[in-house]
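Chain A, query sequence.
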Amino acid sequence: MATCSGFRRGVAEIDPAVAIAFLVADACEHAVPSDEDAVLRSAAMTLRPHDALFKAGFEKPEHAAGIFRGLLPASLADAIAWGTMRLAPGSLIDPALADRHSDLLYEVELHGAPAFLYLLLEHQSTNDPDMPLRMLIYMARIWERFRKEHPVQDGVRVPLPPIIPAVVSHVPGGWTAPRTFEELFEPHPATIPGLAAFVPRFSMLIEDLGHLSNDDIKALTLAAFPKLVLWALRDARSGPEFLRNFAQWGAAMREAWRAPYGVEALGQLLRYVELVCDDLQLEEFRAKLRELGPEVEQAAMTIAEQMRREGAAEGRAEGRAEGRVEGRVQVLTKLLILKFGAIGAEQEALINAATDEDLDRYVERVLTAETLAAVFAE
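Chain A, predicted structure.
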């Protein structure tokens, strides 16, 4: 039986109901999207699929609010002016840990004063026993940035805003690592009189997908697409588990399809599945798609046709490895032109001679580099 590692092969032989699963992956790899946002989304999904899907689902403040509302004590949730919630720019994650964590930061008003909600996704399949320490470092960076933006002037100090940290975990089997900073210490600060006063104290909210059922996710105060994102983060790394729960999400897929930008959203979801799943049985996937009814099949055909048109403009690369390199070169070149206006012969030579590792590094740098030279610096 075929698995999703073969998604790009034999596209012409596959019936329309399952064509979406093939063509989304194929087109995303070879097409050059027509606008800057699309280029960034394509590059991000290929390089870091967990990060890209997480941000697609929760960059909108109203979606992230649904996560926090479900985790916070009611009294604290009532004190937050949710209508003031907005996404703050940037990431606090160490570059070396970007393959392990993703983050989103939001500003809100808490009893009329500024506060932050910090949402972090743990990518890995194992718990991070030092997560409270990492969280403290990220929180300190938020406060440092706030102080730079609100310096002490004439002896007047703007108070630091509180930060409410939350972790979304899709570790199989659930979260078993510490949830509080004090748990990292031995002896525990509470066991020795007077010691606790000298140890920072805070807790993290944990959205533990490993312990959430389908009904639990559906009950969250979220739109259809972010619910689908949580389901995919929970199940998509396991083909059998993904298919076992697939029928439970037909109504949400139809709802997401009808929403604004639904075609793009479902395309991102299935692109994610293609990238992270290595044991999905395509024959069974085809049957599951058909069970969802004609509307989902129509959605599949619509997305497939859209991806087909984009992919046809660039043609087919010969072989998966060659196609991946060509796609990265195209994405990098487009990003450089969009950001810096033009590239010279020297940069073109560096791109053409780059290894897979070099191309990944250049694409990552271009998102934050201030000069063209900084992208290619050794």
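The chain has a mean pLDDT of 79. Residues 4-314 form one domain.
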